[in-house]
Predict the 3D structure of the following.
Amino acid sequence: MASQSTIAQPTTARSTTEKAFQSIIIDDEGRACADIPESACRQEPGNFFKHVGALALTKSADGLVDPKLVLSWLMTSLGAPVALIGLLVPVREAGALLPQLLTAGFLRKLPRRKWAWAAGSIVQGLAAAAIGIVAISLTGVGAGWAIILALAILALARSVCSVCYKDVLGKTIAKSRRGTATGLAGSIASVTVIIYALTLSFDLVDRMALVIGGLFLAGVAWIASGLLFATLQEEAGATEGGKSALKEAWKNFSYLRDDPQLRRFILTRGLLTATALAPPFMIAVGSSAGQGYDKLGFLVLASALASLCSSFIWGRLSDRSSRKVLIFSGIIAAVILAATSWLAFAGTLGGGLILPVLLFGLMIAYQGVRLGRSTHLVDMAGKDTRAAYTALSNTIIGLLLLAGGLFSLIAHMFGGEAVLAVMAGMSGLAILAAWGLDEVQRE
């Protein structure tokens, strides 16, 4: 039925989509499709732009509901206790990653997993809107707990999307074009976030009103993304292995035991979590050196500009060699973090625009890590193991991110400069780990 409906589409519309697709995939000879069937290849141009549109909406929403920045500022302004504010990032990160090992088995029962992704996106939108309602109606401890609860629901819904997305991407977009789709979406979304960040930075609108409006806008974006994703032309996939959550968990750990490349990939990704954990410590040591940070839009703007400048490029490079993207990202992160640590120890970090430039560079590396590891995992895994590999990898990284709280203890004992030095070392080790990864795009 899906193919009949596609044939019935107006020729002009299909031709326009095909031409636009070809103008982006400019170096593909004959648009040969790798790793997807011929029927999916015929649907690829339309699916490509649906992926880009859905991802651009969700990435924009992520920028508007940033726990490290936006929600932290919001809870502080509402008078929530510091202890609750400290739960934001662990709840968001661990809630999005840790449940995946158990949910992967259930989700594999679905022959078309786009429906689970669409539902998860819509739930994220409703949770974001709920946070906006809390900001209008509650204050203090009540507001803090309500936001934490809504964020936990958002994170759980995101975990469902994370398990399903790489599998759907692998079934609908050919191997040589997956990084391009995700990279293009990141670049488009960064424009929205840049506008938002500039508005926050220059106080053009009342900050509380702008933050609350951003939460509702994020809710709309997530819901629209889910509705768009549901229109993907996805063929039915394998449904084996979706029996018991515990049995599936054991099976997933067997992949870790049997596949040395998966172990090396998870080690590389784990070491590169330094790119995600470092910014708060960079801000802390910068503030101690006199580079005070009191503008909500600053980190949002730095992250968005880095995404705009690098996402599409990293995506295209990932389609050629995701292994090299991870290596290059590790090199950039190691240099940036080592320089930041050295300047902080020397007491010169607070001068001029040193800290903003360093933060921008780290966000470039962070974008490379995100796109490189995502593309590498999809291309490394087969169609029958993508969901399990994704869930296992994300679960282990979720545990590592929880353990990242130990860096706060190191900072308390030895200072943020020491933490950044350790993270520079982690990035250096990640280069060595990534060096041993296979060139999966050549297989």
